[in-house]
Amino acid sequence: MIVVAGGEAPVAAALDGLPADAFVVAADSGVDGAHGIGLRVGLAIGDFDSASEGAADRVLAEGGRVERYPAKKDATDLELALDAALARTPSRIVVLGGAGGRFDHWLAVAFLLASPLYEGVAIQARWAEATATVVREPVTLTGHPGDILTLLPVHGPALGVSAEGVEWPLHDEDLAPGTTRGVSNVLTGTAARVGVRAGTVLAIQP
């Protein structure tokens, strides 16, 4: 499943490897971002204070649904979109776009993606500048030799962290919140294998 966030518009290259028939949920101006890369939105959700005029109408015209929320609410449009996506019980959610250059937004999105609320689904975010993968089960991350890979424990300690295919491997190591132990590792080939025995790691490929 694809969730298109508002803010920074996604690039077409972010669709690489994603199924063409994936259901798309768009948050607010994420509707414009989705349409900009040729995606049909199945569900648009949010207060639509930043979407273009007619964006929601286009979703309806193409057979999708629109859920409107007041501007004054207790959750961001992206959180509402993720909750709506989770209700469809996907095995994987890929978030496109987001942050929009604001550091507080980037942090909020990063912590949201790794929230325990979504621990039953694989989640990855793809921005123009970086990819962030939530690691709770072993995953294989692809790239190029020399690419940077940073591993950050979030929402508590990450226990038994392993990383193979990198210049400085990790073997069943515990990473405490706030540690820089996993910052700026480097891929030695085209793939790295990352796992964690308990807890959550955010694997960032800038």
Main attributes?
206 residues, 13 strands, Jelly Rolls, 4 helices, Rossmann fold, 13-stranded mixed beta sheet, 2 domains, elongated, alpha/beta, 17% helix
Separate helix tally:
4
The SSE string, one letter per element, is EEHEHEHEHEEEEEEEE
Give the name of the CATH architecture of the largest domain. 3-Layer(aba) Sandwich
- Give the N-to-C terminal Cα separation: 23 Å
Explain what the structure shows:
With 206 residues, the chain is α/β, with parallel strands linked by helices. The chain has helices spanning 30-36, 55-61, 77-86, 103-113, and strands at residues 2-4, 24-27, 43-46, 65-68, 92-96, 122-126, 131-135, 139-142, 148-164, 170-175, 185-186, 191-195, 198-205. It folds into two domains: 2-128, Thiamin pyrophosphokinase, catalytic domain (Rossmann fold), CATH 3.40.50.10240; 139-205, Thiamin pyrophosphokinase, thiamin-binding domain (Jelly Rolls, Sandwich), CATH 2.60.120.320. The longest helix is centred in the middle third of the chain and has 11 residues, at 103-113. The two termini are 23 Å apart.
Task: Give the helices and strands, then pairings.
Blueprint lengths: L1 E3 L19 E4 L2 H7 L6 E4 L8 H7 L3 E4 L8 H10 L5 E5 L6 H11 L8 E5 L4 E5 L3 E4 L5 E17 L5 E6 L9 E2 L4 E5 L2 E8 L1
Parallel strand pairs: 1-2, 1-5, 2-3, 3-4, 5-6
Antiparallel strand pairs: 6-7, 7-13, 8-12, 9-10, 9-11, 9-12, 9-13
